[in-house]
Design goal:
mainly alpha; 149 residues
Length: 149
């Protein structure tokens, strides 16, 4: 599953790379489909470390344990098809986000979450640890909160 609380430069580097590549794709796409809107003010930067810690511990770790550690891992071990398991786990990740926000079902959220799930799953695959996918996930959610909510 890769549920070890360990950090090294490879985990951090992989998390950052997956975050940056996702952001390059997701920010323009999210703005075009009107899923996100720029909403930044400097005081949000003071909240960012607490937001990151909260997201990492209470959202990213549990979700990554389920979607990468259990679902993607099980599909990959069962089918022996890493790319298919990555895509299917990301699709399922998107599906469970259909009920986030309005309107319901929120297809924009599904679409963006599924794309994010590809990058979270890739981070997990490259390192074999949930710390990397959780780190990527927490970076995405924190960045979204600070700059787009």
């Amino acid at each position: 599953i890769g549920y070890r609380f360990e950090w090294d430069s490879r985990i951090v580097r992989t998390g950052i790379v997956n975050f940056v590549v996702f952001a390059i794709i997701a920010i323009p796409l999210g703005m075009v489909i009107k899923f996100i809107h720029f909403n930044f003010y400097s005081t949000k930067l003071f909240e960012a470390p607490a937001v990151f810690a909260g997201v990492f511990l209470f959202t990213a770790l549990p979700e990554e344990f389920l979607f990468r550690g259990l679902i993607q891992n099980w599909i990959e071990r069962t089918t022996k098809r890493p790319n298919a398991s990555l895509a299917l786990a990301a699709f399922i990740f998107g599906l469970v986000h259909l009920n986030n926000g309005h309107p319901l079902p929120n297809y924009k959220y599904f679409f963006m979450a599924a794309i994010a799930g590809m990058f979270y799953g890739q981070a997990w695959r490259r390192t074999g640890t949930l710390m990397s996918s959780s780190f990527t996930h927490a970076l995405v959610d924190t960045f979204w909160t600070v700059f787009f909510r």
